[in-house]
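Q: Study each token:
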Amino acid sequence: MTYNQIIADIKRKVYHPIYVLHGEEEYYIDQISDLLEASVLDDNEKEFNLTILYGLETDDATIVAESKRYPMMANHNLVIVKEAQNVKSFDHLESYLAQPLDSTILVLCFKHKKIDGRKKAFKIASQIGVVFESKPIYDNQVGEWVQNYLKTHGFFISEKAKFLVAESIGTNLSRLVNELDKLTISLQKGATINEDDVEKCIGISKDFNVFELNNALGKKDVAKCNLIINHFAANEKAYPVVMVVNAVYLYFSRLIKYLYLTDKTSKNAAAELKINPYFIKDYAVAAKNYDIRKAVAAVYHLHEADLRSKGVGAANMKQGEILKEMVFKILH
């Protein structure tokens, strides 16, 4: 089942005896688990029929024992196991799942880890309940995800603001949602969010950000690059090397793909690069300043900066110095 199907079922009060939620992206796991906790029982029923266990503090025998309890003055007994990746074994779960109680809803949350689907317990779970893998989204999917999230909440966002948020925050969905909620809390439904809103509410400068850095690099605007990178260097916590490198790497990866295109029309290039046609003109400009050799060299310098940030070959370099060196090498 997809995430949307699971959420729709829960809202319709269509429940399953077991939910195995696992994967690298914790956001979807939390959303499903939290919705079950909020929906299955009312406040009065929760006192006797809601059990929350933590992987480091429990074992599979305890999980099964709690799952075998009958509900008291309620239709369901809800058992949620958080951080289930820390439970040492699930051997006892096999026998329970062979004959689960109809009144029990067991939720196992494995964060930052994919389960071993070959284990018998999880094979049975997939037959009688829901096994959902929460996969991280890719860098080139963040902008669309931001737009869809805002749309479902009754808001719109300009293309530049969307890319500003996506490239500054990255693929961490929990952080993205937190920042997007800051954006919308003071806006009326139907409003269109622009880069001024992003700067005011999230604190991402509309002038000093990775989006503008990429534009300056593409134009080989040395003065603007230096201005932005000096701002980054003076605010290392807000602009960590990993975040900047990832954003610039995505830009040059798209540029390399653009350079190899035979059909560079706006419509085709946008489809191939998976970006809005509005931004193709920026890649057309960059293509005049970087041939394939220079663009690939830029990726090498980004890889080098990533290693330096981890202490490889530059144990005493400050984060800001690493970024300055990276930008200098790309430009020259």
